[in-house]
Amino acid sequence: MSDTFPGTFPFAGSSYRGPAPQYAQLREDEPVVRVPTAGGVDAWLVTRYEDVRSLSADPRLSRARACGEGAPRVGGTMHTTPEMIISLDAGEHSRLRKLVAGAFTLRKVELMRDRVQQVCDELLDEMAAKGGPIDLVEQLAVPLPLTVIGELLGVPSQDLRTFEKWARAFATVDDRAGGEASLEGLAKLNEYIVGLVADKRANPTDDMLSELVAARDEGDRLSEQELVTFGFTLIGAGFDTTANQLANSVLALVTGGGAEWKRLAEDPSRIPAAVEELLRHVNLFATDTSGFPRIATEDIEVGGTTIPAGAPVLLSLASANRDAAVFPDPDRMDLERSPNPHISFGHGLHHCLGKHLGRMELVVAIEGLVRRFPDLRLAIDESELPWHTGEINHTLTSLPVTWGD
């Protein structure tokens, strides 16, 4: 086995339909391999399901080390700062996570279902009143999760679109421009949340951000910068991934003649299982990884290969979700796949805090769409769809759809 793969990460050929073709070869021949990256440093790329899942929960891989001063810059990954929850290791991560984890339990999320349904129905009413063609990204995919997370955290409704602009800029990972867009987005988000925190401190309301301010001021469990950073991290993570997953999932369902969409319209009871398969099959990550490298704190042996201490490590969730050892016929979208132990929400310490909320929003949105628009279809050819490049996710700029005659 060679220790360097001939290619630069992130590999070309990744799309919402699946990871770059190199991953299939790597899973077969070199599941743990050293690759050069667009940032100019080598990283170890892990591609098989069991290895990715195991290492996602391995405390010998440090996120904090990957975000600290002097850490190697792995190209194609997102800018993060040391105080962000996604940048922390066990003790500090748990301290922050437990402050908000209760709001995202399955029981609490189910209590939000009626409100999510109401927001979705209102957006679908507007969509029906306008008539096709409409842009599904603008009409539903963005405003649904943005409204929900905004209300949960207490962001004024008139500020949501401004916040969306800077959160999406923050998610930009285009290293060719030196990351200026991401850094500008980070600065603007920080500036906005500083003002919002001041307002919540003066005028607390019944929302999560007010609770975090109280945790800062009364229990001193957060530093001021942690409080500000936690605020924009939760809002950004709470809508962008769900918005992109919803748009990409609808696209996957209505292409190829729309047979899968029609089947769901005929039997909506299949939608929860379909959402799980869409989470597995539709490749959300533009780099085929979660976008967040880790650093090995000691030598780690994985499948006969040793990752040396100090090396950056990339875990490919998209590749893991296409591993034939776990998912029979993995490149086929099977909306009735069972079992379906995908790891699209990650695993271990950094698994997605909002996974229950994201799942529920996807189910509610797709159920509403197939009920109201059983003949939904693309309004333009798929080859004409505009994709926003340079983001951590595969992001549709717009998704023109229509229905009826």
From TrEMBL:
The keyword Heme applies. Pfam families: p450. Keywords: Heme, Iron, Metal-binding, Monooxygenase, Oxidoreductase. The keyword 4Fe-4S does not apply. Belongs to the cytochrome P450 family. This is Cytochrome P450. It comes from Lentzea flava. The lineage of its organism: Bacteria, Bacillati, Actinomycetota, Actinomycetes, Pseudonocardiales.
